[in-house]
Write a sequence for this structure.
């Protein structure tokens, strides 16, 4: 499985993804699920993927290939005029990859070729936008009512996002929130694992250089993971006692 | 869907189940998923079910019918000598119901007849035991390493159980913990809903009378649900700030 979250903030976008990929439980590897394309001063496009690894790698390769010379296809994601058009291109390419696999003759498989994508970024002159793209190629956009998207193993880490998300939060608090959400997921499910990749995109910066990888020995991650266990116990104890007599 | 938790404590067993049942999103009803059989001074057996409602109701009806005169089948769950034998009976009955449905001619369905069961209780002279019974009829037992079982929509409510469960906790704290776990689930997923049923079984009491139903206007539930939102935010703020510079 996989766990990725893309989040809109008042000041920008924040992305985080795990790196675990597995085929069964005895074939585990690390793979980067976050990909960024930049045209300096014009656009930053970030994509995170969950699902069949062959599908998601083909998707990223095709999007990259088609935006490069000499065989550039226009419009590529590097030229599309709006983020909405980028989302359409990503959706069309994703559907194309899945259909190509499913249409093939030869060896059949029970496992599906599906994949889901979180896509975010900004093109000059327009605000940043965040989308979730489905295997069918259609997509939805984040809004104030629906300010973040999760893909993959989404359930364990959702309650804390629902409770603590605030669009006004700083990048530091957003990182903290995402680390708690990822930590809750990793504590409960082996198919999501460290290291984690993150990217902070500041509105109107057209700069994707604020990214990094969080490994087991990242001191902040350790502090937050250990601290959260204690903090949640304290929170639990601070609740009023249940009183059977007063029912 | 459904959410049920059965938990072993040093002093007994605690059970909680929601009551929502749905076929699609436009056919929602309330149904009790917790069933208890008692032989005073000899045994208490409690069962919670998740899955196809026709299957789980047939299971409960068969278990009840077969333990009643005049056509009592021995051993029924009221006569089985150990909780292990009760679990076998429940498993066999569950498999029988599922197979009977799947073997039928006539209208076919895509939805499955599966169901999963949490079974707990105590028979005189032996300690309380807790089992999870699978649709195949086999079952696993709780242990100190694996002290609680969840069935149904289990993921949202698991992180808090993993973090805050303690076998020494009081019944009051166990109720608080379960309410937080259920509240986290209900905040994230419409297929789990109030009211909640609970039962507290005290070791060697052979008495199942400590049970009740928690509705929307239960003041403790309201306090815990509202309080948890604030408590978890405070917990979140108490964590050390993420510091990008010190990475």
């Amino acid at each position: 499985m996989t766990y990725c979250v893309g989040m809109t903030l008042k000041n920008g976008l924040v992305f985080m993804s795990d790196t675990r990929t597995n085929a069964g439980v005895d074939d585990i590897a690390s793979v980067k699920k976050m990909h960024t394309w930049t045209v300096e001063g014009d656009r930053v496009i970030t994509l995170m993927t969950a699902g069949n690894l062959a599908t998601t790698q083909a998707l990223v390769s095709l999007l990259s290939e088609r935006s490069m010379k000499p065989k550039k296809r226009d419009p590529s994601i590097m030229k599309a005029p709006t983020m909405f058009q980028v989302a359409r291109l990503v959706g069309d390419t994703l559907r194309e990859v899945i259909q190509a696999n499913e249409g093939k003759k030869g060896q059949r498989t029970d496992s599906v070729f599906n994949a889901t994508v979180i896509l975010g970024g900004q093109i000059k002159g327009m605000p940043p936008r965040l989308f979730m793209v489905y295997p069918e190629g259609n997509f939805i956009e984040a809004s104030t009512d629906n300010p973040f998207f999760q893909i993959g193993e989404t359930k364990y880490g959702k309650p804390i996002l629902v409770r603590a998300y605030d669009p006004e939060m700083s990048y530091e608090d957003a990182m903290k929130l995402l680390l708690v959400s990822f930590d809750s997921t990793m504590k409960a499910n082996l198919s999501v694992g460290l290291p984690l990749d993150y990217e902070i995109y500041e509105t109107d910066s057209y700069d994707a250089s604020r990214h990094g990888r969080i490994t087991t020995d990242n001191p902040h991650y350790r502090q937050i993971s250990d601290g959260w266990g204690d903090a949640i116990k304290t929170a639990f104890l601070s609740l009023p006692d249940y009183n059977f007599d007063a029912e």
Notes: The radius of gyration of chain B is 19 Å. Chain B has a mean pLDDT of 91. The CA atoms of residues 16 and 198 of chain B lie 4 Å apart.
